[in-house]
Design brief:
two-stranded antiparallel sheet, 2 strands, about 75% helix
Length: about 475
């Protein structure tokens, strides 16, 4: 029953944070933080055998479900505090609600429940930031376009997934037991079409090229803090459920042979190549973030080209670790934009030299996103690529998949350059951290410290927000090295 409590607390906390936040932003955020703390404690304490049976379906706790609940709840806590620092108000509630539905979807034994839950939660993660104030200066027309495109992608991908799941369980599907079920070549053709339809749903939900327009516009219309729940973690949950369905219903014999294999590889490689290239050539932080997530999803799509146990396990490792690293990157982008009032790299020369702790956080994020040789992330990337394309073609694609080295290094080099552009316009005093206290603490000084906490938080805002990014970067690094959560 603990699993149900986790889902209930996350869902209620998300709704409460959204409703209360419309009236009192600070209180709404506090509600979200408390809910995330409770979810974290419950997720750690959940018994390993926890399961719930609801009618013909059920919820089953796995280490993957527990791990995602832990990592996502920690991320929500940090993002909520960064939300206060950046002055946005559309992050905490949708992120918690998305956490609730992701846990539901990944724990559910029925794929109908999984995809329906993901659709509902993703709509909240898209609609609330899309309809809110978003980035400073965004017009109502921009917000409406963001809302419409994102909603279409979520609804369309959910419908496609549910339709193909319904076919799989129907009388003529591979799970159906009707005497009218297809057989032989007819069944093989049907399975191939079912696999391609599910991959199409993944492509639409993930914003893979050429279905990437909605994702690019979403990045432009919302704060980067809203991206992890709507795009990184939302995509991760959707792809994981789709892979689980594919393994059970389709099987690797269909995925490996025929035109389906070629089409899936073509879609994945296109997104890997052009996603990395787009992240390399774009100058604004939002597009670098968005196209990097798109490239990650493209690499995970290679698992559909084989659907074997090794590929799916590698995709699980890759998706979870990449979502964590892109959460840290999104936090970095939001804090950098808030501190320097700029989002173009050309105007951010020397950003790391002005805020060294933020530079350290980015360096750890760089390592987590690229993955050092021998780490779980690096091995997962290699397994996905060579599992789908052995030999020289796989080597070429692996090189393309390493383009994060290029675009993240470009950001790092900009940060280490001499300060210029918008960076020099920000007073050094606004970016300083707290100094060391030369003498010991007295009871009186502790009381004074408590009373001055709000003003100190405002004074050292840059330092505190950078600490938040550093926390997310550390979480991403642990997952990059350690690997899958179950």
């Amino acid at each position: 029953m603990t699993l149900l409590v986790v889902i209930a607390v996350a869902g209620a906390g998300g709704v409460g944070a959204m409703l209360i936040g419309r009236i009192r932003r600070g209180i709404g955020t506090a509600v979200g933080v408390v809910a995330a703390i409770v979810v974290l404690a419950l997720a750690i304490a959940m018994p390993a055998e926890d399961s719930v049976q609801i009618g013909s379906s059920g919820l089953l706790l796995t280490e993957l479900v527990r791990g995602i609940a832990v990592v996502w709840s920690v991320s929500v806590m940090v993002l909520a505090l960064l939300e206060l620092g950046t002055g946005t108000s559309t992050v905490t509630g949708p992120a918690l609600l998305a956490l609730a539905v992701a846990v539901t979807a990944l724990a559910a034994t029925d794929p109908f429940t999984s995809f329906a839950a993901l659709g509902a939660g993703s709509m909240a993660a898209i609609v609330v930031p899309g309809a809110g104030a978003g980035l400073t200066g965004s017009s109502p027309s921009v917000r409406l376009a963001t809302l419409a495109r994102g909603s279409f992608a979520v609804i369309g991908s959910t419908i496609l997934a549910i339709v193909v799941v319904a076919w799989g369980a129907s009388a003529i599907g591979p799970i159906g037991a009707s005497p009218f079920a297809l057989a032989g070549e007819g069944m093989r053709l049907a399975l191939g079409l079912g696999l391609l339809t599910m991959v199409g749903a993944v492509a639409l939900r993930s914003g893979l090229i050429p279905l990437h327009v909605w994702a690019a516009r979403f990045m432009e219309g919302v704060t980067p803090l809203a991206v992890p729940a709507a795009f990184a973690w939302g995509t991760t949950a959707f792809v994981l459920v789709a892979l689980a369905w594919g393994q059970v219903t389709i099987g690797e014999t269909i995925a490996v042979g025929g035109i389906e294999h070629i089409l899936i590889i073509g879609l994945a490689v296109t997104s890997i190549a052009f996603g990395g290239l787009a992240a390399m050539i774009h100058d604004d932080l939002e597009h670098v973030l968005g196209y990097s997530i798109l490239q990650d999803a493209g690499l995970a799509t290679l698992a559909f080209a084989t659907l074997n146990t090794d590929a799916v396990a590698a995709a699980r490792t890759w998706l979870v670790a990449s979502a964590a690293s892109k959460t840290a990157l999104a936090a970095w982008a939001a804090v950098t934009r808030t501190l320097f009032l700029e989002h173009r790299l050309a105007e951010l020369s020397g950003w790391a030299r002005r805020v060294p702790i933020l530079g350290l956080a980015f360096a750890i994020t760089w390592l987590a996103a690229v993955g050092l040789p021998g780490t779980a992330l690096f091995d997962a990337r290699t397994t996905l690529v060579f599992g789908a394309m052995p030999g020289l073609p796989g080597l070429v694609v692996l090189v393309l998949a390493l383009t994060p080295i290029g675009y993240l290094s470009r950001v790092a080099i900009t940060g280490l350059a001499s300060p210029g552009g918008a960076v020099v316009l920000v007073p050094r005093a606004a970016l300083r951290g707290p100094g060391a206290r030369p003498s010991g603490w007295s009871p009186r000084s502790l009381v004074e410290l408590a009373r001055s906490a709000p003003s100190s938080a405002r004074e050292y805002r840059a330092f505190l927000m950078s600490l938040g990014v550093l926390t997310l970067a550390a979480v991403a690094m642990v997952l990059s090295v350690a690997g899958q959560l179950g």
